[in-house]
Amino acid sequence: MRSYWLDLFTGSTWQEFLDAGGGVSGFRERRWRTVEHIKAGDYLLCYLTGISRWIGLFEVTSTPFRDATPIWKDEDFPCRVWVKVLITLKPETAVPVLDLKDRLSIFRDLSSLAPGQATSGDLQRDETLLMRKSSSKRCRKPSTILLNDQ
Question: What fold, for 4-147?
Fold first, then answer.
């Protein structure tokens, strides 16, 4: 069964992720015990802090590992997983969280949710809703522009 995880980015860390090829996502060292539970096939719901928008969706393609190879400028984020980018949006076209607040089950558990933590609720339904909402936006992978019109 697939699990869903929250993956937080700032504007800078999002751009650095894309500039590095968009293949590895990372978390702080103190999150290692949580990251160890992420499995290949799980989804990372990418949230852009500061502007409160859903910016992407990744599928995890590896087991967690530690690596300090530079990707991000200000921190190492050494607890890492390889990812396949399913959706990326530009910050200006990313899905505003508050637009979906009443429709996403993730909001029921926000008071106890830590970055990188699995959430409860009907996240498969949430994923479908986020994908539908982003399908009307211009989606892009790091090297390819896609337009989802479904």
Answer: ph1033 like fold (3.10.590)
